[in-house]
């Protein structure tokens, strides 16, 4: 029997966040293992982005705790964030920089070793399909390529936990397919959380699915269980979030 | 990590034409002031020779040039400081820095130091201008040094204030106008303090700079400058932290 606790990369306990009187996220308990891709679904305003911002240290939870690779994010933010890669809803890009400059900056910020910097850069560009875009200014790239630069930035330091907020928005169908393959591949070595509105994407890419509604997790099942029950994700989603 | 942030900020600054245009403009203005003072000096030079213990070229040319430089830099700081945090927020790039294993203290200090490197460059150019007078005479290097230190500390105060105001908004233009307003306010205090000579006297940044301008390195003034800088840097750090806590 493999030691299961050693494999848990991200866990949260009773994560709670309110803005004034409005409760954005309520009692979220997550457990993510290495090699698992978790799909986070939910209607707009369900609290997906807020939850993700909390997991990445951009927003402090009102109560509850977050552990990344066994390190408490609130106590030791710097050590914990070293294991994280995050692509926010709006990619954090400097439009005046070239792709190379920007990715090198991201690598330096995440303390990638100087000796391997160039290799890492080459690698990540290959993985994200940016091989011949290195010298382009980010501002001149199309939305799809900008999105890829955003993804590249999140995975350049080979993090244990990768958090992607709607990664396939604005991509054309071919690119969507490539990014899905990339996510599958990332999911083999790291844990991935991705939020999306596309149910098909979850069915294709994810091992587990959670549905959030009004700040709470209302559904949590693995894809295997779901397939065994022969249930359609679309019906479940509609049932749980329509009210 | 601090070095990474400083490097990034300087890169961003010098990528844009803004920094180069500002450097050229500043230098043009200083050269103008400098030439005017030099002309005035040459006109009265023969009379000065008859006075015992007359003021030298450093006092007549360099000190007034530094005094006008202080006002020019007061006007220019908001243009440089506005983008530091406001633009990051508008372009949603602050997330990149905050999600990375970098502390907020490093982010704020890195941004502050990068702008100070720019000002050190500007002050170095003024010093080079002053040293060119060595060709024709003797210089009072003590006075030049106290002027340079004073101007450096003064611009550090301007930048710290500008950085704080930039942290309050997502609109660079509002940050620029806000800091300009505050800095002009501090200048107004100086005018008031000239007359009343009361407690206002101690708040005014330019009043403290005037001691350096006259060649007096006053520890009280240094303490005030440092207190001013630290206060606004701490306020900036607190504000960014607060944002994380309260959304």
Distance between the termini of chain A: 43 Å
Please give the number of β-strands of chain B: 0
Mean pLDDT of chain B: 89
Count of alpha/pi helices of chain B? 11
- Unreliable segments of 5+ consecutive residues of chain A: 1-6
The percent range for helix content of chain A is 25-40%
What structural category do the secondary elements of chain B indicate? mainly alpha
Keywords (chain B): Cell membrane, Membrane, Transmembrane, Transmembrane helix
Protein name (chain B): ABC-2 type transport system permease protein
Organism (chain B): Nitrosomonas ureae
GO molecular function (chain B): ABC-type transporter activity
Give a brief outline of the structure.
Chain B: Its main location: membrane. The complex is a heterodimer of chains A (243) and B (247). With 243 residues, chain A is α/β, with parallel strands linked by helices.
Please provide a written account of the structure.
In chain A, a hairpin with a 2-residue loop joins strand 1 (8-19) and strand 2 (22-33). In chain A, helix 3 packs across helix 4 (117-127) and helix 3 packs parallel to helix 5 (143-155). Chain A is globular and about 50 Å long. In chain A, the strands form two sheets. In chain A, strands 6-7-8-3-9-10 form a six-stranded mixed β-sheet, sandwiched between helices. Helix content of chain A is 36%, strand content 26%. Chain A has a domain at 92-158. Chain A has nine helices and ten strands. With 243 residues, chain A is α/β, with parallel strands linked by helices. Chain B has 247 residues and is mostly helical. Chain B has one domain. Chain B has helices at residues 2-15, 17-50, 57-81, 83-90, 94-99, 104-131, 141-168, 172-196, 200-203, 205-213, 219-246. In chain B, helix 3 (57-81) runs antiparallel to helix 8 (172-196), helix 7 (141-168) packs antiparallel against helix 10 (205-213) and helix 7 (141-168) runs parallel beside helix 11. Chain B is elongated, with a radius of gyration of 20 Å. Chain B starts with a helix and ends with a helix. The mean pLDDT of chain B is 89. Chains A and B meet through helix 2 and helix 3 of A and helix 1 and helix 5 of B. Chain B: GO terms for molecular function: ABC-type transporter activity. Chain B: This is ABC-2 type transport system permease protein.
């Amino acid at each position: 029997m493999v030691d299961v606790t050693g494999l848990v990369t991200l866990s949260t306990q009773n994560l709670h966040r309110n803005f004034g009187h409005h409760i954005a996220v309520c009692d979220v308990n997550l457990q993510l293992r290495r090699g698992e891709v978790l799909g986070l679904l939910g209607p707009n305003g369900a609290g997906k982005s807020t939850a993700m911002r909390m997991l990445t240290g951009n927003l402090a939870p009102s109560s509850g705790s977050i552990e990344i690779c066994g390190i408490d994010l609130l106590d030791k933010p710097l050590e914990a964030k070293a294991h994280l890669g995050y692509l926010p809803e709006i990619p954090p890009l400097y439009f005046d920089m070239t792709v190379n400059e920007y990715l090198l900056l991201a690598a330096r910020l995440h303390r990638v070793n100087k000796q391997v910097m160039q290799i890492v850069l080459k690698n990540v560009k290959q993985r994200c399909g940016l091989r011949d875009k290195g010298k382009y200014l980010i501002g001149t790239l199309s939305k799809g390529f900008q999105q890829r630069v955003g993804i590249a930035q999140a995975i350049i330091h080979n993090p244990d936990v990768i958090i992607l907020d709607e990664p396939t928005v604005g991509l054309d169908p071919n690119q969507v397919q490539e990014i899905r393959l990339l996510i599958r591949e990332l999911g083999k070595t790291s844990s991935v959380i991705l939020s999306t509105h596309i149910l098909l994407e979850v069915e294709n890419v994810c091992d587990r699915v959670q549905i959030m509604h009004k700040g709470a997790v209302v559904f949590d099942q693995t894809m295997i269980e779901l397939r065994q029950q022969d249930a359609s994700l679309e019906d479940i989603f509609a049932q749980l979030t329509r009210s | 990590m601090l070095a990474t942030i400083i490097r990034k900020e300087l890169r961003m600054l010098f990528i844009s034409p803004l920094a180069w245009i500002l450097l050229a403009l500043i230098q043009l203005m200083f050269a103008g002031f400098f030439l005017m003072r030099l002309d005035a000096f040459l006109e009265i030079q023969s009379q000065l020779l008859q006075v015992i213990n007359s003021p030298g070229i450093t006092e007549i040319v360099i000190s007034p040039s530094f005094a006008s430089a202080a006002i020019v830099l007061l006007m220019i700081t908001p243009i440089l400081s506005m983008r530091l945090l406001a633009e990051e927020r508008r372009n949603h790039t602050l997330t990149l820095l905050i999600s990375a294993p970098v502390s907020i203290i490093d982010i704020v200090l890195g941004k502050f130091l990068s702008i100070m490197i720019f000002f050190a460059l500007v002050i170095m150019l003024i010093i080079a201008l002053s040293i060119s007078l060595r060709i024709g005479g003797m210089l009072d290097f003590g006075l030049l040094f106290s002027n340079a230190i004073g101007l450096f500390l003064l611009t550090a105060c301007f930048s710290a204030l500008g950085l704080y105001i930039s942290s309050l908004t997502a609109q660079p233009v509002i940050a620029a106008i806000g800091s300009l307003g505050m800095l002009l306010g501090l200048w107004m205090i100086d005018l008031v303090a000239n007359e009343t000579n009361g407690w206002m006297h101690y708040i005014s940044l330019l009043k403290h700079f005037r001691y350096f301008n006259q060649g007096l390195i006053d520890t009280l003034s240094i303490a005030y400058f440092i207190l001013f800088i630290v206060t606004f840097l701490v306020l900036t750090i607190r504000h960014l932290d607060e944002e994380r806590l309260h959304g």
